[in-house]
Task: structure prediction
Amino acid sequence: MNAEKATDLIENHLKGLNLDPTLCRGDESGKWSMRVGDAIVWINVFNSPIDSDDWFMQVSSPLFKMPEKNTEAICIDLLELGSNMYTCGMVKRDNWFYILSLQPLNELMPSTIAFIIDKVAFYRNDFFGKMDFKYAGSWAEETITQEEQG
Result:
């Protein structure tokens, strides 16, 4: 699998979701952004900085910015929620929590793309709903969404 083949698979999947791939494309090659429910979902295709022959697809969605209150309890709950995730993980980068899946391109099939996008969006929407209900008011409203490409 190479970046061109992965781009074709990803863009065909986007068309199957009735999305225009040209509107989903980022400013850089190998990047797409879309909404799935309330989730912003980003897809990035890139090669390994260690071995340029190794290519990966990363699908991620911002969950929320580091909370202002209840930080320790929220982090513990996120770790517990993350223990039941399949093919995805929860990460903190800078001041944001994300749902993330990283897949090698050599294993990428159309069904894998659909499954990963669905899982990332599902976990983001599900976890955000649970955390927002339990910890309402723990973060400023403007820190809940992140519109820029990750």
